[in-house]
Design brief:
The protein has one domain. It is built from four helices and no strands. The protein has helices spanning 12-50, 54-70, 74-89, 92-117. Helix 3 (74-89) runs antiparallel to helix 4. The relative contact order is 0.20.
Length: 121
Amino acid sequence: MLRQTESVRVDGTRLDDLVAQLGPSGAENVVCRTLEEVAVRLSHAERCHREGRIDDMRRAVRSLVAISGQIGMHALARVASDVVACADNGDAIAMAATLARLLRVGEACLDELCDTSGVTI
């Protein structure tokens, strides 16, 4: 069986900017809330797709673009934009494949941020 993995890199500069703006505690709060929100929206998008609620899936994925950019998960934002484009084009096969990639990238980003922050920034 082919195991697909995604290699991601969280923008450390963005995290450093958050620490400079909000202090370590404030930045940690923002990152933790954002991680929770990303996880919830990824799960919701996957569920909506599985249930055929494409408009709801599209809204959940579209919201990931801004949220993920806030803490430097640029790969997640880029793939989320691709899922939205596939939904807008009505390409169900490309959308399913791109959504699967979004879920992998999302998981990798969440793992990366949890590992690098230890959630201590």
